[in-house]
Amino acid sequence: DGGGLVTLSGNNATRLFFVGGGYTLVARNITLTRGLSPVGGALVESAGAYLHFDHVRLTDSRADAQGGAIYCFGGTDGTLTLTDTVVSGNHAGRGSGIYNDGCDAVISRSSFLDNTAILTATSRIGGGLYAAGPVRITASTFSGNSALDGGGLFVAAGYTATVVTTTFSDNTAGYGGAIENSGAVTVTASLLDRNTVTGSGGGLWNLNGAVWMSRTTLSGNTAGEGGGLNSYGSTVYLQDVNVLNNRATNTDGGGIYHGGGTLFVTNATVSGNVAERNGGGVFQNSDDNLVLNSVTISGNRALQLGGGLYHQRRYMVLNNVTLGDNDADVAGAAIYENAVVTVSEPGQINAANVLIFGAVNNCDGEMFLSVGHNVTAGTCASFTQPSGQTVTDARMGLLGFNGGSFAMGTYLPLLGSPVIDAGDPGICASYAVEDQRGGARVGTCDTGAVEFGSQLPMLWLAALLR
User: Fold this and answer.
1) How, if at all, do strands 196-197 and 209-219 pair?
2) What is the pLDDT of residues 355-387, one digit of tens each?
3) Please, which residues have CB within 8 angstroms of residue 456's CB and are 6 or more apart in sequence?
4) Could you point out which of 150, 226, 307, 365 has its C-alpha 20 to 30 Å from the C-alpha of 160?
5) How far apart are CA 383 and CA 450, in angstroms?
6) What is the average pLDDT across 63-90?
7) What pLDDT is recorded for position 233?
8) Closest Cα to residue 146, out of 112, 121, 120?
């Protein structure tokens, strides 16, 4: 315990601590700095030990292999706990801040700042933290970190990470500006903001991994492909999520790029995203299906095709989706369908209870399947079912917060809107029992993401009454 007065320095010449199996190192109120290791753990290397850092600064150190500040090898018993700790200005080939190699890691109220993965024989992976062991991160910050893969956090195949109330901002990488995942990651109540990559996944890059994300915002991220989120499998679940003002600078998918595996999106807003080429909001070219339930896709732009959605491969299923005020410079302001349907590749959009407005002609490309009860203000040639409507004015309010337990921009139907009671109750009962805000459907359900006259969730009623 340094009492906030003590600094231990390796003087850029040596590692400070090695902790063997079964032993414990607890450090509090102290700065550890300027460690150097030709292998791993420039400040601390642990081999099956118990590490606990509380109000510690781990700074300005370098390991040529892994763990610029800490290398934690788990063995059968290793643990790593960080509380109110700062990991900053460190360098390593993998895990420039921390390399977790099998330890049970718990990180809370801590910051990973300006750590850089350097080019070595072990490559440049995990700017802030490399997780090759279970890790739980709560109420923390990852900012200004840099790597080729996983600017903030890299989750290796076969391992898990749980991220809660944590901010990833201004991290840079080739792939996965905030997070790159090949394992299984759960992200809740967090923010991925202004991260930048030259390749795929400005906010999150999912490569053969699984992602569960809820009550989280991906905003202002930039990538060559998939500005907000880019997934090549295996499974992604998004619920109560904002994908806002992200950009694909070279190719496709300003907000979301779906390149592989399944992707399920429920109760989400995809808004203000831009693609240099196709799919301003969402781009799909996957070997498996994309399902959107109670989703608002608004104000996105493609410099070529598909301002709201661009579909090329496998099924894209739209249930109670609202597409409003999207734009494409060439064709497909709301939707561009480019799938070639074959027996082996049954690519097609299936649309039910979908509302589209904002352009004279909303849909371009090949025809797709209208399951029915769709409403379009402006034409959409695929909406041919008698249960659907082509109207002059959809009578929708402006995009804004219209209640709910998680703040998302939605369009609220105005009195007299043709979407009111225009939905298929069977579709609502199967896929959209609640509207995007979590409100109950009323009577015959509406077309689109938001239900006219729906009651707000009780959490927000209580808040408004206060």
Assistant:
1) unpaired
2) 999 999 999 999 999 999 999 999 999 999 999
3) 403, 404, 437, 439, 464
4) 226
5) 20
6) 95
7) 77
8) 112
